[in-house]
């Protein structure tokens, strides 16, 4: 049960983290956001973060007063150590470990450690992330079991009662589109479609029905298939 109305949303400027931001705002939280500069190739996401926040403030005045500070955390040293196809010029493919080359080892573990340190200083209790184990890329640090173990470790190591909150954990991408509509109607769907960034290659270019992107990388493919499934189902809204 969510009882404390203070949240720190791990906010990349992508579809999933934008829906998580809307979840926290819609339930009445005072929300701060944090983004991570870990040397990712698609730095366009750092620009998308500002655009999306501004669009939400303009479109949803009932949320604007509760959307507070944004924090940009510099983690380029980590990105240099944990090289992947997201931080180095490498092909996007499956590795010998059976994981996609876009997997940044331990990324979510490090993100939540940094976020918890920030939340401790800011007096925030809920760490909100868009991790999902239904439609995901095989990243082991997106699994709820991983995050449950991390939550326990953070609370033991920091003498706090943080909650790692993952509203999308059991949703498909089609259901994530439906949840966006349930939270903010067509206005939020259009902000996500137009302003968020997901493409692994950092491509903006053409605005497709499902949003900007190269259209061929795994992230674009997942987003497109979710959109197509949602449209085919009649574009229902999913109540939060």
Question: What do you see in this structure?
Answer:
Helix 5 packs across helix 6. Strands 3-2-1-4-5 form a five-stranded parallel sheet, with helices on both faces. It has a two-stranded antiparallel ribbon with strand order 6-7. It is built from eight helices and seven strands, in the order βαβααβααβαβαββα. Strand 4, helix 6 and strand 5 form a beta-alpha-beta unit. It has 240 residues and is an alpha/beta fold. It has one domain (6-197): HUPs (Rossmann fold), CATH 3.40.50. It has helices at 15-26, 44-59, 61-64, 76-81, 107-122, 144-158, 173-195, 218-232, and strands at 6-10, 30-37, 67-74, 126-128, 163-165, 207-208, 211-212. The protein is globular and about 45 Å long.
In CATH terms, what is the architecture?
3-Layer(aba) Sandwich
> Looking at the structure, what is the overall shape?
globular
Number of helices: 8
Name the poorly predicted regions.
90-96
CATH superfamily: HUPs
Q: What's the CATH class label?
A: Alpha Beta
Q: Estimate the helix proportion, in percent.
A: 40-55%
In whole angstroms, how far apart are the ends? 14 Å
State the secondary-structure class. Answer: alpha/beta
Q: Main β-sheet, in a few words?
A: 5 strands, parallel
Mean pLDDT: 87
**In the residues, how many domains can be counted?**
1
Instruction: Determine the CATH topology.
Output: Rossmann fold
The gyration radius over C-alpha positions equals 17 Å
Main sheet strand line-up: 3-2-1-4-5
Tell me the fraction of residues in β-strands, as a range.
5-15%
Q: What's the number of extended β-strand segments?
A: 7
Order of helices and strands: EHEHHEHHEHEHEEH
């Amino acid at each position: 049960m969510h009882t404390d109305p203070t949240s720190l949303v791990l906010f990349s400027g992508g579809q999933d983290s934008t829906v998580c931001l809307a979840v926290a705002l819609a339930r009445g939280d005072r929300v701060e956001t944090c983004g991570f500069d870990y040397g990712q190739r698609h730095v366009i996401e750092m620009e998308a973060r500002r655009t999306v926040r501004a669009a939400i403030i303009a479109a949803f005045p009932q949320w604007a007063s509760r959307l507070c500070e944004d924090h940009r955390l510099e983690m380029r040293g980590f990105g240099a150590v944990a090289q992947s196809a997201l931080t180095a010029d490498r092909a996007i493919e499956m590795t010998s470990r059976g994981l996609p080359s876009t997997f940044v080892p331990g990324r979510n573990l490090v993100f939540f450690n940094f976020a918890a340190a920030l939340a401790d200083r800011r007096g925030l209790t809920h760490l909100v992330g868009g991790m999902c184990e239904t439609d995901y890329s095989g990243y082991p640090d997106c699994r709820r079991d991983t995050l449950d173990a991390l939550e326990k470790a953070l609370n033991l190591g920091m003498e706090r009662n943080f909650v790692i909150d993952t509203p999308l954990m059991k949703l498909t991408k089609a259901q994530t589109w439906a949840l966006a509509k349930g939270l903010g109607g067509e206005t939020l769907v259009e902000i996500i479609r137009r302003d968020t960034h997901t493409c692994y290659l950092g491509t903006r270019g053409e605005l497709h029905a499902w949003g900007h992107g190269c259209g061929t990388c795994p992230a674009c493919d997942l987003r497109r298939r979710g959109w197509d499934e949602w449209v085919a189902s009649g574009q229902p809204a999913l109540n939060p």
